[in-house]
Specification:
This is Cytochrome P450. It contains 16 helices and 15 strands. The protein has 377 residues and is an alpha+beta fold. The strands form five sheets. A six-stranded mixed sheet has the order 1-2-3-11-8-4, with helices on both faces. It has a three-stranded antiparallel sheet with strand order 5-15-12. A two-stranded antiparallel sheet has the order 6-7.
């Protein structure tokens, strides 16, 4: 495994350069160490191994965040069993596919209301639909004011840019709401978490706020990126748009293929708990490992002709992870995207765009910050 001075290209101007870089890296080797000693994993099988084997590849990266322990507390993406198992069980009852399915009516009503307010000609899909829809839904679930969604957008943008102060501000906001719920519980997720516990011990306000922050931040970003990417992909494939109008039942399969091509997050990180062998390479204890989900989803050994949009592919993509850390909000994100796409298909004979240069997030968040489209009834 060679050490070379090389870094992933920016995604601020679009994903193409990063995809080419990942393809080149994957073709050379499924595992590569950069000049900082970080190990990058590109192959599908190797990425799945990193995601699945939590005993060898730990999610607890708190040692890399000195002074920010309060942000890691309650963050399921930074925990290992047994703590992870108990805490996920406490939250997971709200996000089972069966429970999420009961939200379809409310999600549809919210999306219809948002679409009723879009301009007649051109509009930013992110501003008018892809961002507010999941924010409203998750805010209602948590029991925080929907009117604060502008704050959530600012904080999520800061999260996407790696600004710790944005996460801190969100945490403080949710901590205040958690303390208010302790004094006066309601019918919402934060109130239910007050009655939950791990190993017989109640959750602290700090931990509940951290959990709520993860659900609000990662939860709405996932859907915003998924829905925006789905529309962006379909703008390039009017034939698929027409086919989905004829057969809306194929929308879930189309969303799966969008997840493969454009996962909401390009990568996840782990730390080795001991010396481990991966793809014939020995990784020392304490090695930071970056598993490139975007690369795994385009590995041509698993996905023939990987750049082609094909709704008939078997669902083997790992956009929502694999193993114990499979995304808790995946059913909700899929449902929100499905409802929104179905409504867009019913509303517009065709959708055109982008009508302005697309503004993208920087990786690891993968998707457009602004996407101006025009609907044609």
């Amino acid at each position: 495994m060679r050490t070379e001075v090389d870094r992933p290209p920016s995604t601020a101007t679009g994903p193409d350069a990063l995809i080419r870089w990942l393809t080149d890296r994957r073709d050379r080797s499924p595992v590569w160490r950069d000049e900082r000693g970080v190990v990058h994993v590109f192959g599908y099988d190797e990425v799945r191994t990193v995601l699945h084997d939590w005993a060898a590849f730990s999610s607890d990266r708190s040692a890399l965040m000195p002074g920010e322990d309060r942000l890691a507390s309650g963050n399921l993406t930074m925990m290992d069993p047994p703590e992870h198992r108990a805490l996920r069980a406490a939250v997971g009852r709200v996000f089972t596919p069966r429970v999420v399915a009961t939200l379809r009516g409310r999600i549809t009503a919210v999306a219809e209301g948002l679409l009723a307010d879009v301009p007649d000609d051109r509009y930013d899909l992110v501003e008018h639909l892809a961002h507010p829809l999941p924010v409203i839904v998750v805010a209602e679930l948590l029991g925080v004011p929907v009117a604060d969604r502008g704050l959530f957008r600012d904080w999520s943008a800061g999260f996407g840019q790696g600004r710790a102060e944005s996460v801190t501000a969100l945490h403080d906001y949710l901590l205040a709401h958690t303390r208010a719920r302790r004094a006066a519980p309601g019918d919402d997720l934060i109130s239910r978490l007050l009655d939950a516990g791990v190993d017989g011990r109640p959750l602290s306000d700090e931990r509940i706020a951290a959990l709520a922050g993860l659900l609000l931040l990662a939860g709405h970003l996932t859907t915003t990126m998924l829905l925006t990417s789905a529309v962006e992909v379909l703008l390039d494939r009017p034939d698929v748009w027409a086919a989905l109008r004829r057969d809306p039942a194929a929308v879930p399969a189309a969303i799966t293929e969008v997840l493969r091509l454009r996962p909401p997050f390009t990568q996840v990180s782990r730390i080795t708990t001991g010396e481990v062998r991966l793809a014939g390479t020995t990784l020392p204890t304490g090695t930071l490992v970056v598993a490139w989900v975007l690369s795994a989803n385009r590995d041509d050994r698993v996905f023939p002709d990987p750049d082609r949009f094909d709704v008939d592919r078997p669902d083997r993509q790992v956009a929502f992870g694999h193993g114990i850390h499979f995304c808790l909000g995946a059913p909700l994100a899929r449902l929100e995207a499905e409802v929104a796409i179905r409504l867009l298909l019913a509303r517009y004979r065709e959708l055109s765009g982008p009508h302005e240069p697309v503004a993208y997030y920087e990786a690891p968040v993968f998707g457009a910050r602004r996407l101006v489209v025009a609907g044609h009834p």
